[in-house]
Amino acid sequence: MAEENKIKSRTYIPKVYYKGELLPYKETPLTIKDVELCKYCKEEITLEQIQHVVPEAEKEITDKILVYLNKYRKDYKLDTCLRKAHFIAQVGAEMKFLKKNMQEGTSYHHTGLSIFGKKFNTSQEIDDTILNSLKEHLTLIFKITDKDGKTVAKTNEQLKKILKDDKVIVNVRELYGRRDKSVDKEKTLKTIKEKSKDEKGKEVEIVKYNIVLLKHKKSFGIETLSRAYASKNSNSDELSRDGYMYCGKGIKQITWKSNYKKFSTYRNENPFPDDPKKDEKIDFTKVTDKTKYTGNFDLLADTKDVIYAVQSALWYYQKGNPYKTKYTVDWADDDSIQYASYTINGGYNGLEARKDNTLKAKEDEAFKVYKHYKETHKKGTKDQKKKVEDILTEISKDNIKKGINLKDPKAEALLKELRKQEAIKITPKGIKTIPFEITTDLKLKVIEPKSEDNTKSKKKRKKKKK
Q1: In this structure, is residue 259 part of a structural domain?
Q2: How many domains does the chain have?
Q3: In this structure, what DSSP letter does residue 109 have?
Q4: Domain for residue 4, yes or no?
Q5: Which terminus of the chain, N or C, has fewer Cβ atoms within 10 Å?
Q6: Is residue 31 in a domain?
Q7: Which residues, given as ranges, of the chain have pLDDT below 50?
Q8: Which pLDDT score is estimated for 297?
Protein backbone atom coordinates (compact mmCIF):
# COMPACT_ATOMS: atom_id res chain seq x y z
CA MET A 1 0.00 0.00 0.00
CA ALA A 2 2.75 2.45 0.90
CA GLU A 3 4.50 2.16 -2.43
CA GLU A 4 1.24 2.51 -4.35
CA ASN A 5 0.24 5.79 -2.79
CA LYS A 6 -1.11 7.04 -6.11
CA ILE A 7 -3.38 5.57 -8.78
CA LYS A 8 -1.59 5.67 -12.12
CA SER A 9 -3.05 7.90 -14.81
CA ARG A 10 -4.52 6.07 -17.79
CA THR A 11 -6.98 6.68 -20.64
CA TYR A 12 -9.33 4.05 -22.05
CA ILE A 13 -12.62 3.59 -23.96
CA PRO A 14 -15.19 1.74 -21.83
CA LYS A 15 -17.42 -1.03 -23.17
CA VAL A 16 -20.43 -2.33 -21.21
CA TYR A 17 -21.58 -5.92 -21.60
CA TYR A 18 -24.76 -7.51 -20.25
CA LYS A 19 -25.27 -11.25 -20.41
CA GLY A 20 -22.49 -11.51 -22.92
CA GLU A 21 -23.80 -8.87 -25.31
CA LEU A 22 -22.23 -5.49 -26.00
CA LEU A 23 -24.73 -2.83 -25.05
CA PRO A 24 -25.29 0.31 -27.16
CA TYR A 25 -23.14 2.87 -25.42
CA LYS A 26 -21.40 5.93 -26.73
CA GLU A 27 -17.66 5.23 -26.80
CA THR A 28 -16.24 8.21 -24.97
CA PRO A 29 -12.58 8.19 -23.88
CA LEU A 30 -12.27 8.42 -20.10
CA THR A 31 -9.15 9.60 -18.28
CA ILE A 32 -8.39 8.74 -14.68
CA LYS A 33 -6.00 11.32 -13.28
CA ASP A 34 -3.46 10.80 -10.55
CA VAL A 35 -5.24 10.64 -7.22
CA GLU A 36 -3.51 11.64 -4.01
CA LEU A 37 -4.63 8.92 -1.64
CA CYS A 38 -3.55 10.59 1.59
CA LYS A 39 -2.68 14.26 1.87
CA TYR A 40 -1.06 13.69 5.26
CA CYS A 41 1.70 11.43 3.94
CA LYS A 42 3.55 14.35 2.36
CA GLU A 43 3.59 16.45 5.55
CA GLU A 44 6.94 17.09 7.21
CA ILE A 45 7.67 15.82 10.70
CA THR A 46 7.32 18.48 13.39
CA LEU A 47 8.58 19.01 16.92
CA GLU A 48 4.98 19.07 18.16
CA GLN A 49 4.29 15.64 16.66
CA ILE A 50 7.38 14.17 18.28
CA GLN A 51 6.55 15.71 21.65
CA HIS A 52 3.06 14.22 21.43
CA VAL A 53 4.69 10.81 21.13
CA VAL A 54 7.60 11.50 23.50
CA PRO A 55 6.66 14.38 25.84
CA GLU A 56 10.17 14.61 27.32
CA ALA A 57 11.77 15.22 23.89
CA GLU A 58 14.21 18.15 24.10
CA LYS A 59 13.71 20.94 21.59
CA GLU A 60 17.41 21.68 21.02
CA ILE A 61 18.50 18.20 19.97
CA THR A 62 15.16 17.35 18.28
CA ASP A 63 15.32 20.42 16.06
CA LYS A 64 18.78 19.33 14.88
CA ILE A 65 17.50 15.86 14.13
CA LEU A 66 14.49 17.21 12.23
CA VAL A 67 16.68 19.16 9.83
CA TYR A 68 18.05 15.91 8.38
CA LEU A 69 14.90 13.83 8.81
CA ASN A 70 12.78 16.23 6.79
CA LYS A 71 15.46 16.92 4.21
CA TYR A 72 15.97 13.23 3.41
CA ARG A 73 12.80 11.52 4.55
CA LYS A 74 11.48 10.89 1.02
CA ASP A 75 14.77 9.32 -0.02
CA TYR A 76 14.84 7.11 3.06
CA LYS A 77 11.24 5.86 3.09
CA LEU A 78 9.76 8.20 5.65
CA ASP A 79 7.17 9.16 3.07
CA THR A 80 3.92 7.81 4.51
CA CYS A 81 1.97 8.32 7.71
CA LEU A 82 2.65 4.76 8.85
CA ARG A 83 6.38 4.93 8.16
CA LYS A 84 6.77 8.22 10.00
CA ALA A 85 4.71 6.99 12.95
CA HIS A 86 6.65 3.77 13.47
CA PHE A 87 10.05 5.38 12.95
CA ILE A 88 9.45 8.16 15.49
CA ALA A 89 7.89 5.70 17.94
CA GLN A 90 10.93 3.42 17.81
CA VAL A 91 13.48 6.24 18.00
CA GLY A 92 11.52 7.60 20.95
CA ALA A 93 11.87 4.26 22.70
CA GLU A 94 15.58 4.07 21.91
CA MET A 95 16.78 7.54 22.94
CA LYS A 96 13.66 9.57 23.83
CA PHE A 97 15.00 12.51 21.80
CA LEU A 98 17.26 13.44 24.72
CA LYS A 99 20.76 14.78 24.18
CA LYS A 100 22.26 12.57 26.88
CA ASN A 101 20.93 9.48 25.12
CA MET A 102 22.84 9.97 21.89
CA GLN A 103 25.09 7.30 23.42
CA GLU A 104 23.84 4.30 25.36
CA GLY A 105 23.80 4.79 29.11
CA THR A 106 26.35 2.97 31.25
CA SER A 107 24.91 3.29 34.75
CA TYR A 108 22.88 0.22 35.68
CA HIS A 109 21.44 -0.92 38.97
CA HIS A 110 22.29 -4.60 39.20
CA THR A 111 18.63 -5.61 38.72
CA GLY A 112 18.58 -3.78 35.37
CA LEU A 113 21.27 -6.05 33.94
CA SER A 114 18.69 -8.79 33.52
CA ILE A 115 18.06 -7.42 30.00
CA PHE A 116 21.40 -8.89 28.93
CA GLY A 117 20.41 -12.41 29.95
CA LYS A 118 23.03 -15.06 30.63
CA LYS A 119 25.92 -12.66 30.16
CA PHE A 120 25.16 -11.68 33.75
CA ASN A 121 24.30 -14.93 35.51
CA THR A 122 22.77 -14.83 38.95
CA SER A 123 24.92 -17.69 40.20
CA GLN A 124 28.41 -18.23 38.83
CA GLU A 125 31.92 -18.83 40.06
CA ILE A 126 34.11 -15.77 39.60
CA ASP A 127 36.41 -16.53 36.66
CA ASP A 128 39.54 -14.95 35.20
CA THR A 129 37.55 -12.82 32.74
CA ILE A 130 35.57 -11.17 35.54
CA LEU A 131 38.66 -10.70 37.70
CA ASN A 132 40.71 -9.16 34.89
CA SER A 133 37.85 -7.01 33.68
CA LEU A 134 37.09 -5.57 37.14
CA LYS A 135 40.64 -5.68 38.52
CA GLU A 136 40.78 -1.91 39.11
CA HIS A 137 37.55 -1.91 41.09
CA LEU A 138 37.75 -4.96 43.36
CA THR A 139 38.28 -2.94 46.54
CA LEU A 140 35.04 -1.08 45.79
CA ILE A 141 33.10 -4.32 45.39
CA PHE A 142 34.57 -6.61 48.08
CA LYS A 143 36.15 -6.49 51.49
CA ILE A 144 37.73 -9.05 53.79
CA THR A 145 36.80 -9.25 57.47
CA ASP A 146 38.27 -11.29 60.31
CA LYS A 147 36.42 -13.57 62.72
CA ASP A 148 35.29 -10.54 64.71
CA GLY A 149 33.95 -8.71 61.65
CA LYS A 150 36.77 -6.19 61.49
CA THR A 151 37.96 -5.16 58.02
CA VAL A 152 41.31 -6.51 56.91
CA ALA A 153 42.87 -4.14 54.33
CA LYS A 154 43.59 -5.73 50.95
CA THR A 155 44.75 -4.41 47.59
CA ASN A 156 43.04 -5.14 44.27
CA GLU A 157 45.72 -7.71 43.45
CA GLN A 158 45.35 -9.45 46.81
CA LEU A 159 41.59 -9.58 46.44
CA LYS A 160 41.98 -10.96 42.94
CA LYS A 161 44.04 -13.87 44.26
CA ILE A 162 41.70 -14.55 47.18
CA LEU A 163 38.60 -14.58 45.00
CA LYS A 164 40.21 -16.93 42.50
CA ASP A 165 41.73 -19.31 45.04
CA ASP A 166 38.54 -19.57 47.08
CA LYS A 167 36.29 -20.11 44.06
CA VAL A 168 33.62 -17.67 45.17
CA ILE A 169 30.10 -18.03 43.75
CA VAL A 170 28.37 -14.72 43.00
CA ASN A 171 25.45 -13.03 41.29
CA VAL A 172 27.47 -11.48 38.47
CA ARG A 173 24.98 -8.63 38.11
CA GLU A 174 25.85 -7.44 41.62
CA LEU A 175 29.50 -7.04 40.67
CA TYR A 176 28.99 -4.86 37.59
CA GLY A 177 25.84 -2.95 38.54
CA ARG A 178 25.17 -0.51 41.37
CA ARG A 179 24.15 -1.73 44.81
CA ASP A 180 22.84 1.54 46.20
CA LYS A 181 19.23 0.92 47.19
CA SER A 182 17.95 0.37 50.70
CA VAL A 183 17.48 -3.34 50.00
CA ASP A 184 21.09 -3.69 48.87
CA LYS A 185 22.86 -4.73 52.05
CA GLU A 186 26.40 -5.93 52.64
CA LYS A 187 26.47 -9.70 52.61
CA THR A 188 28.98 -12.40 53.31
CA LEU A 189 29.62 -14.46 50.19
CA LYS A 190 31.91 -17.03 51.74
CA THR A 191 33.52 -17.78 55.08
CA ILE A 192 36.95 -19.40 54.97
CA LYS A 193 37.83 -21.54 57.97
CA GLU A 194 41.02 -23.14 59.20
CA LYS A 195 41.86 -25.79 61.72
CA SER A 196 43.28 -24.84 65.09
CA LYS A 197 43.55 -26.20 68.61
CA ASP A 198 41.66 -24.88 71.58
CA GLU A 199 43.00 -24.44 75.14
CA LYS A 200 42.59 -28.14 75.81
CA GLY A 201 44.51 -29.06 72.69
CA LYS A 202 41.42 -30.25 70.86
CA GLU A 203 41.35 -29.61 67.10
CA VAL A 204 38.63 -27.17 66.06
CA GLU A 205 37.68 -25.04 63.05
CA ILE A 206 37.87 -21.29 63.38
CA VAL A 207 37.05 -18.43 61.03
CA LYS A 208 40.09 -17.38 59.07
CA TYR A 209 38.31 -14.56 57.15
CA ASN A 210 35.06 -13.62 55.47
CA ILE A 211 34.60 -12.47 51.87
CA VAL A 212 32.00 -9.72 51.91
CA LEU A 213 30.11 -8.09 49.02
CA LEU A 214 29.91 -4.35 49.62
CA LYS A 215 27.12 -1.91 48.99
CA HIS A 216 28.47 0.39 46.26
CA LYS A 217 27.06 3.36 44.36
CA LYS A 218 29.31 2.99 41.34
CA SER A 219 28.28 1.20 38.17
CA PHE A 220 31.21 0.06 36.06
CA GLY A 221 30.00 1.16 32.66
CA ILE A 222 32.95 0.30 30.44
CA GLU A 223 33.18 -3.17 31.93
CA THR A 224 29.39 -3.66 31.90
CA LEU A 225 28.89 -2.91 28.20
CA SER A 226 32.07 -4.77 27.29
CA ARG A 227 30.58 -7.87 28.87
CA ALA A 228 27.05 -7.29 27.59
CA TYR A 229 28.13 -7.14 23.95
CA ALA A 230 31.12 -9.47 24.03
CA SER A 231 31.98 -12.15 21.48
CA LYS A 232 29.18 -11.57 18.99
CA ASN A 233 28.54 -9.72 15.72
CA SER A 234 32.25 -9.06 15.09
CA ASN A 235 32.89 -7.94 18.69
CA SER A 236 35.80 -9.63 20.43
CA ASP A 237 35.77 -10.77 24.06
CA GLU A 238 35.03 -8.67 27.12
CA LEU A 239 38.64 -7.65 27.71
CA SER A 240 38.93 -6.15 24.20
CA ARG A 241 36.36 -3.50 25.26
CA ASP A 242 34.66 -3.83 21.86
CA GLY A 243 31.33 -4.03 23.63
CA TYR A 244 31.85 -0.59 25.11
CA MET A 245 33.30 1.01 21.99
CA TYR A 246 30.58 -0.34 19.69
CA CYS A 247 27.70 0.18 22.09
CA GLY A 248 24.51 1.99 21.08
CA LYS A 249 25.08 5.40 19.46
CA GLY A 250 22.98 7.76 17.38
CA ILE A 251 19.23 8.26 17.44
CA LYS A 252 18.66 4.56 16.70
CA GLN A 253 21.45 3.40 19.06
CA ILE A 254 23.42 1.45 16.44
CA THR A 255 25.14 -1.42 18.27
CA TRP A 256 27.81 -4.04 17.46
CA LYS A 257 30.96 -3.70 15.37
CA SER A 258 29.32 -5.55 12.47
CA ASN A 259 26.66 -2.83 12.19
CA TYR A 260 29.24 -0.03 12.35
CA LYS A 261 31.05 -1.82 9.54
CA LYS A 262 27.89 -2.15 7.43
CA PHE A 263 26.98 1.47 8.00
CA SER A 264 30.51 2.49 6.93
CA THR A 265 30.01 0.72 3.61
CA TYR A 266 26.55 2.20 3.10
CA ARG A 267 27.50 5.76 4.01
CA ASN A 268 30.63 5.72 1.85
CA GLU A 269 28.48 4.73 -1.14
CA ASN A 270 25.54 7.01 -0.25
CA PRO A 271 26.70 10.11 1.65
CA PHE A 272 24.15 12.83 2.30
CA PRO A 273 24.67 15.59 -0.33
CA ASP A 274 25.40 18.07 2.45
CA ASP A 275 27.79 15.73 4.30
CA PRO A 276 30.88 17.90 4.97
CA LYS A 277 33.04 14.80 4.41
CA LYS A 278 31.12 13.39 1.45
CA ASP A 279 34.32 13.06 -0.60
CA GLU A 280 36.05 11.12 2.16
CA LYS A 281 35.70 7.47 3.13
CA ILE A 282 35.00 6.97 6.83
CA ASP A 283 35.58 3.72 8.68
CA PHE A 284 33.23 3.99 11.66
CA THR A 285 34.89 0.96 13.29
CA LYS A 286 38.30 2.67 13.52
CA VAL A 287 39.77 3.09 17.03
CA THR A 288 41.77 6.31 17.42
CA ASP A 289 42.81 5.95 21.09
CA LYS A 290 43.04 2.44 22.54
CA THR A 291 43.59 3.65 26.09
CA LYS A 292 40.56 5.93 26.12
CA TYR A 293 38.46 3.62 23.91
CA THR A 294 37.58 6.39 21.46
CA GLY A 295 37.28 6.30 17.68
CA ASN A 296 35.27 7.14 14.59
CA PHE A 297 32.29 5.31 16.08
CA ASP A 298 31.87 8.32 18.37
CA LEU A 299 30.82 10.40 15.34
CA LEU A 300 27.40 8.77 15.62
CA ALA A 301 27.01 10.25 19.11
CA ASP A 302 28.05 13.80 18.12
CA THR A 303 25.45 16.21 19.49
CA LYS A 304 26.77 19.23 17.59
CA ASP A 305 26.29 17.80 14.12
CA VAL A 306 23.85 14.89 14.18
CA ILE A 307 24.27 13.97 10.52
CA TYR A 308 25.63 10.46 11.18
CA ALA A 309 23.34 9.92 14.14
CA VAL A 310 20.39 10.43 11.80
CA GLN A 311 21.74 8.74 8.67
CA SER A 312 22.69 5.60 10.60
CA ALA A 313 19.12 5.38 11.95
CA LEU A 314 17.56 5.86 8.51
CA TRP A 315 19.91 3.24 7.07
CA TYR A 316 19.03 0.74 9.79
CA TYR A 317 15.31 1.42 9.38
CA GLN A 318 15.58 0.32 5.74
CA LYS A 319 18.46 -2.15 5.69
CA GLY A 320 19.43 -3.08 9.23
CA ASN A 321 17.96 -6.27 10.67
CA PRO A 322 15.46 -8.25 8.59
CA TYR A 323 12.94 -10.73 9.94
CA LYS A 324 11.38 -13.08 7.40
CA THR A 325 13.14 -11.05 4.66
CA LYS A 326 11.32 -7.87 5.75
CA TYR A 327 13.01 -4.84 7.33
CA THR A 328 11.59 -2.42 9.89
CA VAL A 329 10.15 -0.13 7.20
CA ASP A 330 8.29 -3.10 5.68
CA TRP A 331 6.80 -4.02 9.05
CA ALA A 332 5.83 -0.36 9.47
CA ASP A 333 3.86 -0.66 6.22
CA ASP A 334 2.02 -3.57 7.86
CA ASP A 335 1.47 -1.50 11.03
CA SER A 336 3.10 -4.27 13.05
CA ILE A 337 4.27 -3.05 16.44
CA GLN A 338 5.64 -6.50 17.22
CA TYR A 339 7.95 -6.89 14.25
CA ALA A 340 8.88 -3.24 13.87
CA SER A 341 10.08 -3.49 17.47
CA TYR A 342 11.81 -6.82 16.95
CA THR A 343 13.75 -5.75 13.86
CA ILE A 344 14.78 -2.34 15.19
CA ASN A 345 15.81 -3.69 18.61
CA GLY A 346 16.93 -7.22 17.83
CA GLY A 347 14.52 -8.34 20.55
CA TYR A 348 11.73 -6.96 22.67
CA ASN A 349 13.48 -4.73 25.19
CA GLY A 350 11.21 -1.84 26.14
CA LEU A 351 8.27 -3.35 24.27
CA GLU A 352 5.65 -1.62 26.38
CA ALA A 353 7.15 1.81 25.64
CA ARG A 354 7.39 0.93 21.95
CA LYS A 355 3.71 -0.02 21.90
CA ASP A 356 2.61 3.09 23.79
CA ASN A 357 4.71 5.33 21.53
CA THR A 358 3.29 3.76 18.39
CA LEU A 359 -0.33 4.13 19.46
CA LYS A 360 0.29 7.80 20.29
CA ALA A 361 2.13 8.29 17.00
CA LYS A 362 -0.93 7.06 15.09
CA GLU A 363 -3.23 9.66 16.64
CA ASP A 364 -4.42 12.81 14.87
CA GLU A 365 -2.16 14.98 17.04
CA ALA A 366 0.82 13.14 15.60
CA PHE A 367 0.91 11.32 12.25
CA LYS A 368 -2.82 10.85 11.52
CA VAL A 369 -2.60 7.15 10.70
CA TYR A 370 -6.31 6.54 11.28
CA LYS A 371 -7.17 9.38 8.90
CA HIS A 372 -4.65 7.85 6.48
CA TYR A 373 -6.58 4.59 6.55
CA LYS A 374 -9.86 6.38 5.86
CA GLU A 375 -8.39 8.38 2.98
CA THR A 376 -6.77 5.34 1.39
CA HIS A 377 -9.88 3.21 1.77
CA LYS A 378 -12.03 5.94 0.25
CA LYS A 379 -9.84 6.76 -2.75
CA GLY A 380 -7.83 3.60 -3.28
CA THR A 381 -8.06 0.71 -5.69
CA LYS A 382 -9.70 -2.56 -4.78
CA ASP A 383 -6.32 -3.99 -3.70
CA GLN A 384 -5.51 -0.93 -1.63
CA LYS A 385 -8.86 -1.07 0.15
CA LYS A 386 -8.32 -4.75 0.87
CA LYS A 387 -4.84 -4.04 2.22
CA VAL A 388 -6.28 -1.49 4.65
CA GLU A 389 -8.96 -3.93 5.81
CA ASP A 390 -6.45 -6.76 6.15
CA ILE A 391 -4.16 -4.62 8.31
CA LEU A 392 -6.99 -3.41 10.52
CA THR A 393 -8.26 -6.97 10.90
CA GLU A 394 -4.82 -8.16 11.97
CA ILE A 395 -4.00 -5.39 14.44
CA SER A 396 -7.45 -5.56 16.05
CA LYS A 397 -6.69 -9.09 17.31
CA ASP A 398 -5.26 -9.83 20.74
CA ASN A 399 -1.51 -10.32 20.38
CA ILE A 400 0.27 -11.05 23.64
CA LYS A 401 4.06 -10.72 23.59
CA LYS A 402 6.18 -10.58 26.73
CA GLY A 403 2.97 -10.19 28.71
CA ILE A 404 1.94 -7.10 26.70
CA ASN A 405 -1.13 -7.02 24.46
CA LEU A 406 -0.12 -5.32 21.21
CA LYS A 407 -3.70 -5.00 19.97
CA ASP A 408 -4.68 -1.58 18.62
CA PRO A 409 -7.87 -0.65 20.54
CA LYS A 410 -9.10 1.66 17.74
CA ALA A 411 -8.64 -0.71 14.82
CA GLU A 412 -11.82 -2.79 15.14
CA ALA A 413 -14.16 0.22 15.31
CA LEU A 414 -12.44 1.83 12.32
CA LEU A 415 -12.73 -1.39 10.32
CA LYS A 416 -16.48 -1.57 11.00
CA GLU A 417 -16.86 2.07 9.99
CA LEU A 418 -15.09 1.53 6.67
CA ARG A 419 -17.15 -1.56 5.85
CA LYS A 420 -20.41 0.28 6.41
CA GLN A 421 -20.02 2.36 3.26
CA GLU A 422 -23.23 2.21 1.22
CA ALA A 423 -23.26 1.03 -2.36
CA ILE A 424 -23.41 3.82 -4.94
CA LYS A 425 -26.21 3.37 -7.47
CA ILE A 426 -25.56 4.60 -11.02
CA THR A 427 -27.07 4.36 -14.44
CA PRO A 428 -24.41 4.51 -17.18
CA LYS A 429 -25.06 7.23 -19.74
CA GLY A 430 -26.84 5.87 -22.82
CA ILE A 431 -28.38 2.87 -21.00
CA LYS A 432 -31.75 3.87 -19.60
CA THR A 433 -33.27 0.44 -19.20
CA ILE A 434 -30.54 -1.34 -17.24
CA PRO A 435 -29.46 0.37 -14.02
CA PHE A 436 -26.27 -0.64 -12.20
CA GLU A 437 -24.81 -0.12 -8.77
CA ILE A 438 -21.19 -0.07 -7.60
CA THR A 439 -20.81 -2.28 -4.55
CA THR A 440 -18.40 -1.58 -1.70
CA ASP A 441 -15.84 -3.91 -3.27
CA LEU A 442 -16.03 -1.85 -6.49
CA LYS A 443 -17.96 -4.41 -8.56
CA LEU A 444 -20.66 -3.45 -11.08
CA LYS A 445 -23.94 -5.12 -10.15
CA VAL A 446 -27.02 -5.10 -12.38
CA ILE A 447 -30.22 -4.01 -10.62
CA GLU A 448 -32.85 -6.36 -11.97
CA PRO A 449 -36.06 -4.52 -13.04
CA LYS A 450 -39.27 -5.45 -11.26
CA SER A 451 -41.61 -7.55 -13.41
CA GLU A 452 -45.05 -6.18 -14.37
CA ASP A 453 -46.79 -9.26 -12.94
CA ASN A 454 -45.20 -8.68 -9.55
CA THR A 455 -46.19 -5.02 -9.64
CA LYS A 456 -49.84 -5.82 -10.54
CA SER A 457 -50.14 -8.51 -7.87
CA LYS A 458 -48.84 -6.09 -5.24
CA LYS A 459 -51.46 -3.49 -6.28
CA LYS A 460 -54.25 -6.12 -6.07
CA ARG A 461 -53.15 -7.10 -2.57
CA LYS A 462 -53.24 -3.48 -1.48
CA LYS A 463 -56.81 -3.05 -2.88
CA LYS A 464 -58.07 -6.18 -1.06
CA LYS A 465 -56.70 -4.86 2.24
CA LYS A 466 -58.64 -1.65 1.72
Answers
A1: yes
A2: 3
A3: B
A4: no
A5: C
A6: no
A7: 2-4, 6-7, 422-423, 425
A8: 98
Q: Are residue 335 and residue 259 in the same domain, yes or no?
A: yes
Give dist(CA 452, CA 458) in Å, integer. Answer: 10
- So what's the pLDDT on residue 22? 73
The beta-carbon contacts of 116-122 under 8 Å, at least 24 apart in sequence, are 116/227, 116/228, 119/227, 119/228, 119/230, 120/172, 120/173, 120/176, 120/177, 120/227, 120/228, 121/171, 121/172, 122/171, 122/172, 122/173
Residues 114 and 94 in one domain: no
- DSSP-assigned beta bridge partners for residue 31: 11
How far, in Å, are 135, 142, 167 from residue 158 at the CA level? 10, 11, 14
Contact yes or no for 119/226 (Cβ under 8 A): no
Residue 333 lies in a domain: yes
pLDDT tens digits, 430-451: 555 556 655 555 555 666 665 5
Q: CA–CA distance from 230 to each of 237, 293, 443 (Å)?
A: 5, 15, 59
Instruction: Say what the pLDDT of residue 4 is.
Output: 47
407 lies in the same domain as 266: yes
Q: Under a CB-based contact definition with an 8 Å cutoff, are residues 192 and 152 in contact?
A: no
- Quick one: 145 and 66 in the same domain? no
Q: What is the pLDDT of residue 422?
A: 43
Residue type present at position 340: A
Angle separating helix axes 369-379 and 81-95, nearest 10 degrees = 160
Asked whether the beta carbons of 272 and 68 are under 8 A apart, the reply is yes
The H-or-E segment that residue 338 falls in is helix 337-345
Instruction: Check whether residue 262 and residue 410 sit in a common domain.
Output: yes
Domain end, chosen from 389, 404, 419, is at: 419
Pairing of strands 444-446, 6-7: unpaired
Distances (CA, A) of 249 to 80, 89, 90, 105: 26, 17, 14, 10
437 shares a domain with 305: no
- Of 208, 224, 240, the last residue of a domain is 224
Q: Which residue in 442, 259, 245 sits closest to 346, CA to CA?
A: 259
Mark whether 302 and 283 lie in a shared domain: yes
Its sign, for the CA torsion 223, 225, 227, 232, is negative
Helix axes 351-361, 337-345, angle to 10 degrees: 130
Dmax (CA) of the chain: 129
Q: Tell which residue, 375, 366, 370, 317, has the closest CA to residue 345.
A: 317
Query: Are 264 and 407 part of one and the same domain?
Result: yes
Q: What CATH number is attached to the domain comprising 285?
A: 1.10.530
* Structural domain containing residue 393: 47-104+248-419
CA-wise closest residue to 402 among 332, 321, 318, 345? 345
